[in-house]
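Possible regression after last week's pipeline update?

I re-ran a chain I had predicted before the update to compare outputs. Posting the input and the new output here so someone can diff against the archived version. Not blocking, just want to make sure nothing changed silently.
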Amino acid sequence: EAARRSRSDAIRQVYKQIEDSREGLDTSNPVVYYADSELGGDPAKGQKLFFERTQLSCVRCHKISDKGGEVGPNLTKIGTERATDYLLESIVAPNAKIPDNFKTVIVQTEDGKIISGVVRADTDEYLELMNAEGKIERVEQDNIIGQKEGLSSMPADLMKSMNARELRDLVAFLKTLDGTVDVGGFVEGHAEE
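New output (post-update):
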């Protein structure tokens, strides 16, 4: 960002070379395109994005300590459990690697209903799916006529709701999550006054 705004011709020339080299990048692989978001960033700003940016809805689906939803993985210790490139990929390409216990299933019932959600129970008698709102829906196995794996319940277009600097801040925040991060000042997506 500083190089782009620089008054120095030499710095702007180097910046242009870097930008020109991006033209050859595979834009279908957003991890490569946003790789510079793995470094730097402001964890405090990232925490604010996680809990307050309604367009991202991170806290709606993900839990940190005792704050948040349960549709997506618990992120309380994600900074110690996963590498930075995994965190970045999970945001910019959520369908690339979906944890087994958070894969979405789409079922069709005999009465023509289409139900999708994350499998929470799969028995001989029924299938329980948690939908995007966090509600459990039980479907009797005898009523299912078709079933297939779906996409991640995490939106694939999150980058429409943040810029590259905000992505870097969010990744920086996730990297700090080691089970000891205090999120007490945030309640269900809104900072306490």
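Follow-up from reviewer: compared with the archived run. Residues 187-193 have pLDDT under 50 and may be disordered. Marking as no regression found.
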